[in-house]
Design a protein that fits this description.
Length: 358
């Protein structure tokens, strides 16, 4: 069910709810469910569960968050035992606010980056696996995770971004970071660009210097949607990834601490950012491309355009405009390309999507 319809669904079924029943929301955003469930009779108890994996995936070992709404501790414990039959790794959260905060920090940003990249490639008129700036390990991850998100339903991404009250600030902060970095690029302020990014990287990764990287470039390179040899890869400014630590620094958030409610895709997006930021030669290559490669500047311009357009839809809560733009972006990729990208993404998730963060 679409998140935006939970209110009407509860209203329709309210009178048929049994006395003393436990009503459970399985939505990815909890705030609208809590607001809708408040209209249920006082003897009805309510809670939420959020399966942190896609439909069709075997449930054994997958993550599932449980969230108490209006429910007694004893009944809540009984419900956790009940959902344990799915064989999931249960993640108990203290409140719906905690859940929505964590999903805003993880899923909202990941989905926003993905659909913005897809729209930018559509505007540029090429598929990423046909362009040398998007091949190789990181490029493969960008393409597969982007199409993985676009292969879903628009109301899923839209609900995560527009109906989670904490997601809008996160997305707006990311948009501002993208715009600010691009402004420094086109005005030739390389020293300020480097200072801004390096300060953010130091803040985000200062406690992870001894931790292994989430992603391995050699293994990432095994996956490809195209036929261009990896040794023909050309530099990329990595604007979409360098803007992310800037966003977290400005919000004073540690993205690794909020991944408790992360999905495989959000972990892969986090891993891409980490790999670029903690690999000195790759970070330097991105800096050089940002200021010396006019070809990638054109790509970045279209990415900024896409980010600004998507952010406007999100901030205005324009669900119909969001759905239309999502469908238009998705239509740029053929059904065969989406199917192949999903196959590759599934393999990637099996290897990287559940890697321990600490």
């Amino acid at each position: 069910m679409e998140v935006e319809n939970v209110g009407s669904a509860v209203k329709y079924n309210r009178t048929s709810t049994k006395q003393g029943a436990v009503v459970v929301s399985a939505l990815s955003v909890m705030t609208p469910a809590v607001q809708a469930f408040d209209s249920l009779p006082e003897d009805v108890q309510t809670m939420g569960v959020h399966t942190l994996y896609r439909p069709g995936v075997p449930t054994q070992g997958q993550a599932m968050a449980t969230v108490p709404f209006r429910i007694s501790p004893d009944v809540y414990q009984q419900m956790k035992v009940l959902v344990d039959i799915f064989g999931c790794k249960i993640i108990p959260l203290g409140s719906y606010e905690e859940h929505d905060n964590k999903t805003a920090d993880t899923q909202a940003t990941a989905h926003f980056k993905a659909i913005s990249r897809g729209t930018a490639w559509k505007y540029c008129g090429f598929f990423p696996w046909q362009n040398t700036a998007y091949i190789g390990g990181i490029g493969n991850m960008k393409a597969s995770s982007t199409i993985r998100v676009l292969s879903g339903k628009p109301h899923v991404s839209g609900g995560i971004m527009m109906l989670n009250p904490r997601a809008k600030d996160q997305i707006d902060a990311y948009t501002t970071a993208v715009f600010d970095l691009f402004t420094l690029m086109i005005t030739g302020q390389e020293a300020k660009f480097r200072e801004t990014v390096d300060e953010a990287i130091e803040y985000v990764f200062r406690q992870r210097q001894k931790n292994p990287l989430l992603l391995d470039d050699k293994v990432m390179g095994e996956y490809s949607l195209g036929n261009i040899p990896a040794n023909e890869r050309t530099p990329n400014s990595e604007l979409s990834n360098l803007a992310e630590p800037v966003m977290y620094f400005r919000l004073k958030k540690n993205p690794f601490e909020t991944q408790l409610c992360g999905t495989p895709i959000s972990r892969i997006e986090l891993g891409k950012m980490e790999y670029i930021c903690r690999t000195p030669e790759l970070k330097e290559e991105a800096f050089q491309a940002a200021f010396n490669d006019l070809t990638i500047r054109e790509h970045d311009l279209q990415f900024v355009r896409a980010v600004l357009e998507w952010n406007t839809l999100v901030q205005n809560g324009d669900s119909e405009g969001f759905k239309q733009k999502f469908k238009e972006t998705k239509a740029f990729f053929s059904d065969e390309q989406i199917a192949e990208a999903n196959r590759v993404a599934t393999d990637i998730i099996k290897r990287f999507g559940y890697a321990p963060l600490f």
